Amino acid sequence: MVKDTLLKLLAVPGPTGFEGACASLIEKEIAPYVDEIRRDVMGNLICVKHGKANGRKIMLSAHMDEIGFIVTGIEDDGFLRVMALGGIHFEQMLACHVTLKSGAQGVVFAEGGHAPGTPVNAARLFLDIGASTKEEAQTRAAIGDWAVVRPQVSDMGDRVASPYMDDRAGCAVLLEAVKLVKESDNEIYAVFSTQEEVGLRGARTAAFAIQPDMGIALDVTIADDYPMAKKRVTTSQLGKGAAIKVMDRSSISHPAVKDAMEEAAKKAGVPYQFEVLTAGGTDAGAIHLTGGGVPSGTLSIPCRYVHAPCETVDVRDLEACVKLLAAML
Ligand code: CO
Ligand code: ZN
Predict the structure, then answer these.
(1) 3 state SS of 284
(2) Ligand 1 centroid, distance to 290 Cα (angstroms)
(3) Are 304 and 210 in a shared domain?
């Protein structure tokens, strides 16, 4: 079940640049279903499932990393200063509970407390890890250590919220699709990529090494189907099925790949929707510019509150994505 897999993957922190623990977990889960597994210099977990001779190489990519913080300073009174790893919305980090590389726990707050109207930025944020002195703090944190919102899940039945949904939802879909494909003509490269949140870096080197004939990213996309002050400009909607990307800021989906996704959705009999994302990108942005160009697209999972610690998806959309993807392979 994709939900069981998702819940497993949501339990392990893997901030950008520090995805090792998440990679180990996925490696254990996927090992019985693939022929080869390797990790490259960037930390990408590359899992290969052989096809018949002369099959096409299809690269599927879901990023393991989530946004977080890096410790940049330790103050005399034991507070930590931080910098963002990826696209953090600082005001949404206020009052969050965090876990650090050492396993230490703490909370996030901002200088000056609840001063209304004061913008929250990285320079004003600090972590309180319960230390009273610099020396005490240094027993739990060092410069360069990561910190992330603590793994916590709200299981609402068909819908699930977590700070790591971007992109463990994509990882879960990829894992389940690989499990579903028994035999394929194609050589399938299931890549669990690193450092997507700072510019699609892992996918870039993985695609260069693989030189695929087709690239598909699995990632969340914005669902703005919730109460908003302004008129809704719905990009995708929860519970309305797999979202086939038309374009975002990093790529315009190749028509052949987009059409193949629609075909596969029909073949699998799953609901689907098209989405255009006005901000952000996916691993497809790196894959499609590799070598002389790779026909690429993105299969998206509708997600509310992307990059907030309460990213919410509908597992029925994940199931639709799994079936669509398996039908394509
Ligand atoms: Co993201
Ligand atoms: Zn993502």
Answers:
(1) helix
(2) 21
(3) yes
Structural domain total, the chain: 2
85 alpha carbon – ligand 2 mean position (Å): 13
CA angle at residue 142 from 193 to 79, to 5 degrees?
Answer: 115
Closest CA to 302 of 131, 166, 148: 166
Residue 36 annotated among the catalytic residues of the structure: no
Distance CA 82, CA 69 (A): 6
Looking at the fold, whether 9 and 106 belong to one and the same domain comes out as no
Residue 307 CA to ligand 1 center (angstroms) comes to 6
Residue 155 in any domain: the answer is: no
The Cα 52–Cα 223 span in angstroms is 39
Q: Is 179 within the bounds of a domain?
A: yes
Q: Which of 29, 66, 196, 319 is catalytic?
A: 196
pTM for this one? 0.97
CA distance 252 to 329: 21
CA 205 to chain centre: 17
Q: What residues make up the domain containing 91?
A: 68-149
Does the residue 186 lie in any domain? yes
What pLDDT digit, counting tens, does each position of 145-192 carry? 999 999 999 999 999 999 999 999 999 999 999 999 988 999 999 999
Beta-carbon neighbour count of residue 121 at 10 Å?
12
Distance 138 CA to ligand 1 centre (A): 30
- Smallest-distance ligand from the CA of 86: 1
Beta-bridged to residue 234, according to DSSP, are none
* 221 inside domain: yes
